[in-house]
Specification:
6-stranded parallel beta sheet, about 425 residues, Rossmann fold, elongated, alpha/beta
């Protein structure tokens, strides 16, 4: 499978490798310092690049090359790609810009013709490279290598990758990244197929401006054994025009995309933050169904959460079956409804009592939203531990909402350690759960 050459190459040639810090080719070599495979810098003028022997052309390299990365002005790309073809390199990432995104369709078509002639798979042009943290592969020119994780990110954007990596450090990791750029060949479906077979990937996250072959994409989603979370831009005229100038992509009707995604088991997110939250939740927990139970020690936050759940089409279940059991263990003035408001004076023991009753009646709910409003009389860490115990015993989806000041930090860390998502923002927590089924 040639696509594997993009993510697990044993040898890479960098066309446009440089000793100058201001050049993309400098960063490409620098970011491959820890890569365990072979790296061949290609530069027509220099004999060495950053301490490595350099070659004038890939044709001068006597060893096999699995992947080439091209980062030179657009007018020279064609010649370099032809040399890659003669060298029998089967995978090429073209970082160089200056094609359909500026109306230069003819030059782009010439690249396609060359790729067809030599049977080269192309990622790009006008892309940002790709990443596999598990083998220290980074053919992008981002500042940082992400932590190893279980989310694969496929995008028509490099800037998003830079921001995501910096945001993710010391929080979560990625299994891989593919920047598709103008997408003249390798597309979302190709990468989805690859990441479905990748043992390190649990969830596939896509940022889509437009699809060139919608049927191929939807078929790959239907076949996918792993959840696919999508952020689709182009909801507005302004967004559609921006997508066209970015990668030369016609965004098309958002409503048509939305309907097609729904039929293909794609999980749609409105924002990148929501997409990340959903992706992280799906790497940590197996969410099935739509029935939610809400447990809170504050009436207002419970009502607000229930209202948002209703707006987002989550089923806030009725509790007739367990009300008598709850009456035995909760204060008289508890809500007698869902949300289960255990009242503000309650301790971690009331949370535990509710959890124990729910454990005996697991069939009535699919996941729980557990809200903790910080009070002077409550031990926040003990509540967090009860949430962890509940998650372990129930094996249901659990999301926590911790509302308070700096005192909640230890509880947050404890929940994170046990892979239980927790939020300060009620809306963000509910959005994470919406549309997962």
């Amino acid at each position: 499978m040639v696509i594997e050459n993009f993510f697990r190459p044993r040898s890479i040639a960098i066309i446009g490798a440089s000793n100058e810090r201001s050049k993309v080719g400098y960063s490409l070599i620098k970011n491959l310092e820890k890569f365990k495979g072979k790296v061949f810098p290609i530069n027509i003028k220099r004999k060495t690049i950053q301490g490595r022997k350099a070659f004038k052309s890939v044709l001068n390299v006597m060893e096999n090359i699995d992947l080439t990365v091209i980062a030179i002005p657009a007018q020279f790309v064609k010649k370099s790609l032809e040399e890659c073809g003669k060298k029998q390199i089967k995978a090429a990432i073209i970082i160089s810009a200056g094609y359909s995104e500026i109306g230069n369709i003819k030059e782009e078509q010439e690249l396609i013709n060359l790729a067809n002639k030599y049977k080269i798979r192309i990622m790009g042009p006008n892309c940002f490279g790709n990443v596999n943290p598990y083998i220290n592969l980074d053919t992008s020119f981002s500042l940082s290598m992400p932590q190893k994780g279980e989310i694969a990110f496929i995008a028509q954007s490099g800037a998003l990758w830079i921001s995501l990596v910096e945001y993710s450090l010391n929080k979560f990791g990625f299994s891989g990244y593919a920047s598709l750029g103008n997408m003249i060949d390798v597309d979302f479906a190709d990468c989805i197929e690859y990441f479905n077979k990748d043992k390190n990937t649990k969830v596939i996250l896509c940022y889509i401006e437009a699809l060139k072959d919608g049927r191929k994409f939807l078929n790959s989603c239907k076949k996918s054994e792993k959840p696919i979370v999508v952020v689709k831009v182009g909801k507005s005229d302004a967004g559609a025009k921006a997508a066209l100038s970015h990668t030369g992509a016609l965004a098309g009707s958002y409503e048509i995309y939305k309907a097609a995604f729904k039929q293909s088991n794609v999980i749609l997110a409105d924002t990148l933050t929501e997409a990340l939250d959903k992706s992280l939740l799906l790497t940590q927990q197996n969410i099935r169904g739509n029935k939610v139970v809400i447990i809170t020690n504050g009436g207002g936050t419970g009502v607000l959460t229930a209202d948002l759940c209703g707006i987002k089409n989550l089923n806030v279940i009725q509790l007739q079956k367990i009300i008598k059991s709850l009456n035995k263990f909760l204060p008289e003035d508890w809500s007698h409804n869902n949300p289960i408001d255990i009242v503000g004076s309650s301790s971690h023991k009331e949370y535990k009592n509710v959890f124990n009753i729910l454990l005996k009646n697991k069939s009535i709910f699919d996941f729980a939203l557990v809200i903790l409003n910080q009070q002077k009389m409550i031990n926040i860490e003990k509540v967090a531990q009860e949430i962890i115990n509940f998650r372990k015993k129930s094996k249901k989806g659990i999301v926590a909402i911790l509302i308070g000041g700096k005192e909640i930090k230890k509880a947050e860390d404890l929940l994170n350690k046990h892979k239980i998502p927790n939020f300060f923002d009620i809306d963000r927590a509910v959005n994470t759960l919406k549309g997962l089924n």
